[in-house]
């Protein structure tokens, strides 16, 4: 039977953070994706609360956490997470991150490996992409108060409907609305200097990460997302990669039961007695040579 969720707020040096909390046991910290907030994890933590202590913060600038007029960065979110965990006296945790949350989780583990017992990353972002800079430039056009691209799209929409080719225009309008509903995501991904974003990308850093990691990816997600997940798995030495074949881009809400089982199995098998480390035949797949 699911335990009742408690909602709390705390004032940190970076701003006020809202979080959900439930359960007892090993602490799992859930970090939400780019276009969401902590509520996306409710189907997951309801199933885990009987065995685990689940902490689900809204990242600074998202959901019910404070949306300060400051310069947002991945480093800022990592610092905020570190202070949040310290304020709750959480010294050894598992991190579960989706999309942007995966980027922040991996960045945190690189900076504080002694605090992270393991990570589960679902469709994580934060690696170098060839067209990222071009996409950022085009997205910034859509974020202008009177974007020329949007004006043109709206102007030709009636004609496109007659010609039977409206999907791209409709998708553009929906994408702009998504951007407007997610101002902090826009600041992190599209409204910073490219050199600053590049400095926070992880493709040159993940090889030094020794935290046990499970990568989960939907098989029907975009080719770019699938490629990034595979790259994470290839770069992190102590990682394992699993595809949920019919999953798309929101596994926590699409397949909560499957995700929960992966998390349970990962935690069960990622704790390996020290005397077994030297004998690879005794290790679960997560720790065996690739």
TrEMBL record:
Against InterPro entries, the record matches this protein to:
AB_hydrolase_1 (IPR000073), AB_hydrolase_fold (IPR029058), AB_hydrolase_sf (IPR050266), Epox_hydrolase-like (IPR000639)
Single GO term (MF): hydrolase activity
Identification of the protein by name:
Alpha/beta hydrolase fold protein
Does the keyword field hold Isomerase?
no
Q: Which Pfam families does the entry link to?
A: Abhydrolase_1 (PF00561)
Q: Which SUPFAM superfamilies match?
A: alpha/beta-Hydrolases (SSF53474)
- In its UniProt entry, the species of origin is given as Crinalium epipsammum PCC 9333
The answer to whether the entry has keyword Manganese is no
The AB hydrolase-1 domain extends over 26-244
Keywords (alphabetical) are: Hydrolase
């Amino acid at each position: 039977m699911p335990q009742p969720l408690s909602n709390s707020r705390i004032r940190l040096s970076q701003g006020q953070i809202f979080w959900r909390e439930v359960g007892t046991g090993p602490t799992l910290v859930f970090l939400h994706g780019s276009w969401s907030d902590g509520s996306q994890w409710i189907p997951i933590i309801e199933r885990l609360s009987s065995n685990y202590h689940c902490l689900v913060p809204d990242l600074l600038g998202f959901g019910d956490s404070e949306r300060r007029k400051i310069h947002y960065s991945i480093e800022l979110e990592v610092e905020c997470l570190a202070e949040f965990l310290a304020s709750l006296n959480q010294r050894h945790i598992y991190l579960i991150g989706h999309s942007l949350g995966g980027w922040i989780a991996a960045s945190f583990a690189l900076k504080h490996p002694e605090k992270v017992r393991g990570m589960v990353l679902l469709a994580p972002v934060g690696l170098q992409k060839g067209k990222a800079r071009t996409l950022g430039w085009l997205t910034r056009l859509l974020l202008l108060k009177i974007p020329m691209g949007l004006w043109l799209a709206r102007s030709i929409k009636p004609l496109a409907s007659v010609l039977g080719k409206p999907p791209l225009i409709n998708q553009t309008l929906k994408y702009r609305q998504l951007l407007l509903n997610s101002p902090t995501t826009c600041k992190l991904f599209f409204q910073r200097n490219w050199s600053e974003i590049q400095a926070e990308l992880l493709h040159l850093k993940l090889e030094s990460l020794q935290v046990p990691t499970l990568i989960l990816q939907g098989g029907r997600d975009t080719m770019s997302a699938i490629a990034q997940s595979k790259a994470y798995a290839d770069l992190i030495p102590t990682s394992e990669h699993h595809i949920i074949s019919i999953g798309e881009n929101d596994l926590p809400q699409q397949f909560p039961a499957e995700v929960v089982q992966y998390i349970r199995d990962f935690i069960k098998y990622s704790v390996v007695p020290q005397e077994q480390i030297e004998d690879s035949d005794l290790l679960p797949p997560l720790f065996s040579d690739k």
